[in-house]
Design goal:
It is built from four helices and ten strands, in the order βαβββββαβααβββ. The chain has about 210 residues and is α+β, with helices and mostly antiparallel strands. Helix 1 crosses helix 4. It is globular and about 50 Å long.
Length: about 210
């Protein structure tokens, strides 16, 4: 996994249903305010909570969630980045789909995180990335082991995930923007020869 074996973790709490999204044009009274980790978690928790899990014939865990995935492989990990400028601190947590998803603190991969934040800022034409960003990382091998020519399926998965996250953010009266970053860098998975590659992001603000 992206986090180390001794990384801190905590369960996720689901407070919004992505199956019943109410869109609103009303601007939040918090417009322009700083958002943090908990806000990002409320956006993605419905998307990573599996309603069913089973083992496929090749040993991979397959899942069913409210966000469809080609072959039920769900190859995406959400990397939540939250910067607190007053404390000069950057939090990084990783969340993957599961029947009981947990967030795991990411204490390494600093150069990779700087790369994706720099790419996010460039894509948004900003001097620096927003204080809260959800970066999607794809483990292509999960899908390609079942569909050898299925790379495009992973990109479709990321588009559906980001689009649904954008709608959930709107239902929470948060502002968000899908960020078109891709293959900026790769994150080595601890204890394996596999990698996670960025396939898009979502910036959040109040």
């Amino acid at each position: 996994m992206l986090a180390g074996p001794t990384a801190q973790s905590a369960p996720l709490t689901r407070r919004v249903s992505s199956l019943n999204i109410r869109l609103t044009n009303r601007r939040s009274e918090r417009s322009g305010s700083h958002l943090g980790l908990e806000d990002a978690l409320q956006v993605i928790t419905p998307l990573v909570t599996a309603t069913a899990e089973w083992i496929s014939t090749d040993g991979y865990v397959e899942r069913q969630t409210v966000v469809p995935s080609a072959g039920a492989r769900h190859p995406l990990t959400a990397l939540l980045l939250s910067r607190n400028d007053s404390e000069k601190r950057l939090e990084a947590w990783a969340v993957s789909p599961s029947a009981a998803p947990r967030r795991y603190e990411v204490t390494g991969h600093q150069s990779e995180i700087r790369n994706v934040l720099r790419s996010t800022a460039d894509a948004l034409q900003m001097p620096q990335a927003p204080s809260t960003v959800v970066v999607l990382l794809a483990r292509f091998r999960r899908t390609l082991s079942k569909y050898p020519d299925g790379e495009s399926l992973v990109w479709r998965d990321s588009g559906v995930f980001l689009g649904t996250a954008h709608l959930i953010a709107a239902s929470l009266e948060l502002h968000s923007c899908v960020v078109g970053i891709a293959e900026t860098t790769s994150f080595a998975l601890n204890g394996t020869s596999d990698t996670l590659v960025d396939v898009g992001a979502l910036s959040l603000w109040g």
